[in-house]
Amino acid sequence: MSQEAPTPSARRTELLEAAYRYALTHGLSDLSLRPLAEAIGSSPRVLLFLFGSKDGLLRALLARARAEEVALVDRARRPGRPAGLVPAVEEVWAWLAAKEHRPLLRLWAEAYARSLVQPEGTWAGFARATVEDWLGVLADCQPPAERDGEDGAARRTLALAVLRGALLDLLATDDEKRVTAAVERQLALLRAGTGGG
Questions:
Q1: Would you say residue 107 has pLDDT above 90?
Q2: Does 164 reside within a domain?
Q3: Contact in structure between 191 and 117 (CB atoms under 8 Å)
Q4: What percent of the chain has pLDDT over 70?
Q5: Integer Cα distance of 43 and 184 in angstroms
Q6: Is residue 13 classed as helix, strand or coil in its secondary structure?
Q7: Which structural domain, as residue segments, surrounds residue 79?
Q8: Would 197 be classed as within a structural domain?
Q9: What is the CATH number of the domain that holds 95?
Q10: DSSP letter string, 29-68
Q11: What is the helix (H) or strand (E) element at residue 185, kind and residue range?
């Protein structure tokens, strides 16, 4: 018989949301329980009780960030009516480039990089899961004839690499005009390679 995970308490949920808002502004790398607890109206002892440890809190924050990303993924997904790879990338880039999403995307970039350099523990699997989520979204946007072949896999991998690289450049420079022009140039090449998809 399997046990169900306990339902989080209202206080844990409230503090997780407050800690998430704090992390969007301050990041995760130097997260210290005392300033965090003070900023969100709690205490280090309560946070340790509710999340088990600082690592437990970090894992909960990563899960919360990933839930936000997966919500975006679900909005972009169209398994029953594939829009095509180019329109999907245009839609995703418009969301990524929007200024109001920068705090979430900085948090994502931080977690992604930490997952690469610290592959065990708190950050384990974050980068890989992100890549798999996005490749799945892009696959759902491809028509079946394109999606199911090696070329289709290569095209969506290229599209994801362009999006990820452009996002990192945008976060580093805030030069939305230049980076968007580069994404559009790559989309034109992608479109030319398939006659529109």
A1: no
A2: yes
A3: no
A4: 88
A5: 48
A6: helix
A7: 10-192
A8: no
A9: 1.10.357.10
A10: TT--HHHHHHHHT--HHHHHHHHSSHHHHHHHHHHHHHHH
A11: helix 176-192
For tokens 């759902």, what's the residue? 140
Round to whole Å and give the CA distance between 117 and 29: 12
Confidence of residue 3 (pLDDT cuts 50, 70, 90): very low
Cβ neighbours of residue 149 closer than 8 Å, sequence gap 6 or more? none
Closest Cα to residue 33, out of 15, 14, 7, 9?
15
On whether residue 5 sits in a domain, the answer given is no
Rounded to whole angstroms, how far apart are CA atoms 42 and 17?
13
Q: Tokens at residue 76, please?
A: 């972009």
Q: 84 — alpha (psi -120 to 50), left (phi > 0) or beta?
A: left
* Under 8 Å between Cβ of 70 and 129: no
